[in-house]
Amino acid sequence: MIELDDVLVTAWSPDPAGGPDRVVPLLGPVTLRLAERRIAVVGANGSGKSTLARLLNGLVLPSAGAVTVDGLDTARDGAAVRRRVGFVFTDPDAQIVMPTPVEDVALSLRRLPLTKAARQAAAIDALDRFGLGDRAHVPVQALSGGQRQLLALASVLATRPDVLVCDEPTTLLDLRWRSRVDALLEGLEQQVVLVTHDLEAAARADRVLVVDGGRVVADGDPASALAAYRALMLGVRP
Ligand SMILES: Nc1ncnc2c1ncn2[C@@H]1O[C@H](COP(=O)(O)OP(=O)(O)OP(=O)(O)O)[C@@H](O)[C@H]1O
Q1: Sequential DSSP letters for 162-178
Q2: For residue range 83-101, what is the model confidence (pLDDT) as tens digits?
Q3: What are the distances in angstroms from CA 68 to CA 29, 100, 137?
Q4: Ligand 1 centroid distance, CA of 120 (Å)
Q5: In this predicted model, what pLDDT tens digit does every residue of 104-150 receive, in sequence order?
Q6: What does each C-alpha distance from 154 to 103, 109, 171 come to in angstroms?
Q7: Residue 205 Cα to chain centre, angstroms
């Protein structure tokens, strides 16, 4: 289970008045136990959703407090945490590093004790599962945006993480690909933490966190949390 205990995140920021850099708060204090299988995180632009998501696998470290995954501290045991918690970015190009899909997935599998041939076969299997089997050897640039997002997911899931954190994974996709990626995420066995502006997707979660001004301001079942979010954004009474 992922736990956040009294977490604060701060950053250094230039002083617009030209003075020395200042410490600015980005998030917190936040205390959470994330046990549900499907958790959605919603909030305004710049509210702190990505900062919260990145805390979960140690991409961002707490300035105070602690984040643990099954008891492993993200600050002390970062590599072990990242083996348990996979992260999918909005822009798949931020995480695809190899020239072809099969090489990209095979790279993710490099830590598994497999021969080169077995790794290649496992990579092809992973691509097949995501409907990309026939694209395995084409240049990554020749894939559509939706196919690249599926490749990014395939590469992360090939490492068999226990938890998948996705930061707006469908924002760049058209309706067809968005539905496809949504369906795929919904069908996963893993726990999924989904940062999204898609309130229909959030409504299908078991639990919704609403982030505003660096705080979790609502947290509960989708109906009540999304009503609170709409009230916050649109001034509509929940
Ligand atoms: N390293 C940093 N240094 C300074 N400010 C930062 C840093 N990282 C994030 N911020 C600021 O913290 C705030 C929260 O950023 P974050 O990316 O978490 O928001 P978000 O809710 O994910 O936004 P969006 O929906 O637009 O992606 C923003 O104002 C952002 O500019």
Answers
A1: SEEEEESTTTTS-HHHH
A2: 999 999 988 998 899 999 9
A3: 15, 35, 38
A4: 38
A5: 999 988 888 888 899 999 999 999 988 899 999 999 999 988 889 89
A6: 12, 11, 18
A7: 15
Q: What CATH number is given to the structural domain containing 71?
A: 3.40.50.300
Which atom of ligand 1 is closest in space to residue 211's alpha carbon? 21
Q: Which domain holds residue 188?
A: 2-94+160-234
With CA atoms as reference, report the closest residue to 181 among 154, 204, 213. Answer: 154
Query: Which pTM value belongs to this model?
Result: 0.91
Provide CB contacts within 8 A for 83, sequence distance 6+. Answer: 111, 159, 161
Distance 50 CA to ligand 1 centre (A): 7
Total domain count for the chain? 1
Residues 6+ apart with CB under 8 A from 175: none
Tell me if ipTM is over 0.85: yes
